Every structure is written in C-alpha cells, then in structure tokens.
Amino acid sequence: MAVQEIAKGIYSVGARDWDIRDMHGYSTNRGTTYNAYLIIDKKITLLDTVKHYCMDQLLENIRQIIDPAKIDYIVANHVEMDHSGGLTQMMELCKPEKLICSPMGKKALLDHFHHEEWPYEVVKSGNQISLGKRTLQFLETRMLHWPDSMFSYLKEEGILFSNDAFAEHLCTSELYDDEIDLSLLMQECGKYYANILYPYSGLVKKVMETVDEMNLDIKMIAPDHGVIWRKHIDTIFEAYRQWSSGTASKKVLVIYETMWDSTRKMAFAVEKGLLENDVSVKMINLKTMHYSDVIAEVLDARAILLGSSTLNNGMLPAMNNFIYYMKGLKPFNKLAASFGSFGWSGEAVGLMNGILEGLKLELVDSGIKHKYVPTEEALEACTEMGRRVGAKVAGEFTV
C-alpha cells in the first residue's frame, strides 16, 4: 500500500493483501487490507500494526516518512492478530514510551505476547491523551468484535479510527469511499457485518447511540480493513443502525441442498408460492455459494426457508455446515420454515426446525418432509407454504 497523507501530518501506512481468500472461514474473494495510521506530532503515534507477513510493507511505508525508531506511542485498538501480528517486532524496533490499549486490551496483549515489561497505558471510555498539537480520545467498544476493541478519535481533525467497525474485506488501490462504486462497497460492508458483527448487534446499536450522544464532529472514519470513509459517512452509519436493529427488506431466501433432486423440486415449488406475492425471492443452492456469502444475504432478509435431504439421520453436509455457522451469528427478526425429502427416517427437517426455534425465529410451518420423490400433492403443500410465507412478508410491507 502506497503511503498517503489523509490529513496534514497523518498518514495511511498499512498493507494490502491481494491474495488472501479466507479469513477464518470467511471468504475474502476481493482480498483485504490491514490499515495502520501514523500521526506526526510532538509524540509520534502509530495506530495498530498489520498481519505478521505484511510487516515489510508497514516498515517500508513508515520509513518513507520517519525512522520507525522515532515512534513514541503505539495504540492497539484491537489485539486480534491481523492487527497485532507485527506488534512484537514494532515494540523491539521502536521501544515506545507508551503502548496504549483498553483494560481488556492489556489482558489480551499479555495473553498473546506474554510481555509484562511493555509500557502499557490503559485507557477507558472518555480518557484523552495529548500528542502535542492533537488529542486522542478513546471509546471502549467491547465485543465489536472482541472484548478489547476500542475506537480512537483524533479530536482536532475529526478522524475516527474505528478498527474493525465500518470496515470491509476489500483490497483496492483506491483509498477512499468516494473513489469506488458505492453499491459494491456497501455489499462488502454488509457481508462484513453479517459475518463479524451480527451476533453483537445489540452492542453495536448501543455504540451507535453513544457515538450520536457524544456529538463528535466526524469528518473521516479510518477503519483497519478496506477504504477510508470521507463522503458517505452518513450512509455507513445508517446501515449500521439498520443492521443492528434487525431491519429487513421484503426478501425471502430459499436455501437448500439436495441429494437426488427431490429436495430441489420441493424448493422450487416453495418458490412458486412465494412468487404469487409481492416479495423478492432468492434461490440459493448451498453447493454453489459459500456460507459466508449466504449469511450476507440473510442479514436483510425477512424470511429464510431451509431445505435439506436427510443423510445418515442428519442434514446434508453443506446445510449442516451452514446452519451451525448461522447459529453462531444469531440472526434475528426472521420468519422461517424447513422442508426436505428423505429415504428412511427423515430427521433433517426436525433438526433444522430445532435450530431455527433455538434462534427464536418465528416458525410459520411445522415443516414439510416427503419420502423419496415428491408427489404432486407434496409439491402443492410446498407451494402452499410459499404462499403463506409470501403473503405474511408482503402484508408486513403494505403501506
């Protein structure tokens, strides 16, 4: 990543990772960046580092501005290793006066790196540190998305260094939100939220309320992945408010995996009933889409209908993987139902229902299962399920 000055004396010095395609199970088809920021002031300050194998990029970028040994403070907004993987090397090189972190950040740094001697400066929400002409103010953002996470706000320039919030896994030569297609950007932001922050939506909502109450004059949001926001700040803020509140669109997903095409036939019979109503329908065969992309579709869907054949007294493998992944992300404010074919025992529908009920989603049907190839009567039952779900969704959006 080329060094770029984002404000007078403030530089983006992080690294681009064009090649990465998996981030602990999340498909990163467009790569990612590990953003770090350097503030030149009386106390030269580095905010976050990068993944360990990108340290050469970080150090090369810093050296274009200053000798890294001159860094006085390092801020660890988040301890996860894509942001702190280079911290040990930076600590040895810089020997900074302060390593600034949240209370939980210190615990996490000790658990990761085991250096009791590091010069920890623990900050809490509302604390400020003067860098000289500039001041950093801190806001703890626990579970966005780790207990140690925090925001750092540079008051004089109005820059919010938000770490993993308002981020996206997107590697691009462009630095700012207004330099790339906004629809693509928001698609990646939604995928990021769905796969990273979804289970903490209640806390996200509270953080958004806190930021509003603080009445910060935010001119720029500088996250640790993806682009810097300078034009569409209101857009990403509103998206986070909507996502964290569970606001849904008039969209229904039919997500299925089939063995010998019988469950697929049931899925398209469900679609037939849905399409009799004024709703948007998306058919998703789990063999053709990565589960991290599917969960991004779940984020704003009002209803999710799951279909799986029964295999070895359980669900088919892709459905099994997806539904347990979805369970961990805790979607809410959804209608749901399940269906599927079977040969002997037919447990898949009951298993899917159990997980949907455990998530406290509203089941609109007890489930439809049929032995072997579905009859016309069975397909009509699936179509009727689609009609009922579609009518309920459409009715909710009637003005």
List segments where confidence is low: pLDDT < 50 over at least 5 consecutive residues.
Answer: none
Rg, nearest Å: 24 Å
The best one-word shape is elongated
Number of strands: 24
Q: Which structural category fits the helices and strands?
A: alpha/beta
Largest beta sheet: strand ordering? 1-2-7-8-9-10-11
Oligomer: single chain
Instruction: Please give the count of helices.
Output: 12
Q: Tell me the β content.
A: 15-25%
Mean pLDDT: 96
Question: What is the makeup of the main sheet?
Answer: 7 strands, mixed
State the helical fraction. Answer: 25-40%
Distance between the termini: 48 Å
Structural overview:
The chain is α/β, with parallel strands linked by helices and 399 residues long. It is 35% helix and 23% strand. It is built from twelve helices and 24 strands. Strands 1-2-7-8-9-10-11 form a seven-stranded mixed β-sheet. The N and C termini lie far apart (48 Å). The model has no long low-confidence stretch (mean pLDDT 96).
Features:
6-stranded parallel β-sheet; 12 helices; alpha/beta
Q: Concise description?
A:
The protein has 399 residues and is α/β, with parallel strands linked by helices.
Structural topology:
Layout: E1 4-7, E2 10-12, E3 15-17, E4 22-23, E5 26-27, E6 32-34, E7 37-39, E8 45-47, H1 55-63, E9 73-75, H2 81-84, H3 87-94, E10 98-101, H4 103-113, E11 120-122, E12 128-130, E13 135-140, E14 150-154, E15 159-163, H5 182-197, H6 201-214, E16 220-223, H7 233-245, E17 251-257, H8 262-274, E18 280-285, H9 291-298, E19 303-308, E20 310-311, E21 314-315, H10 317-329, E22 335-342, H11 348-358, E23 362-363, E24 368-371, H12 376-396
Parallel strand pairs: 8-9, 9-10, 10-11, 15-16, 17-18, 17-19, 19-22, 22-23, 22-24
Antiparallel strand pairs: 1-2, 2-7, 3-6, 4-5, 7-8, 12-13, 13-14, 14-15, 20-21
Helix pairs in contact: 5-7, 5-9, 6-7, 8-12
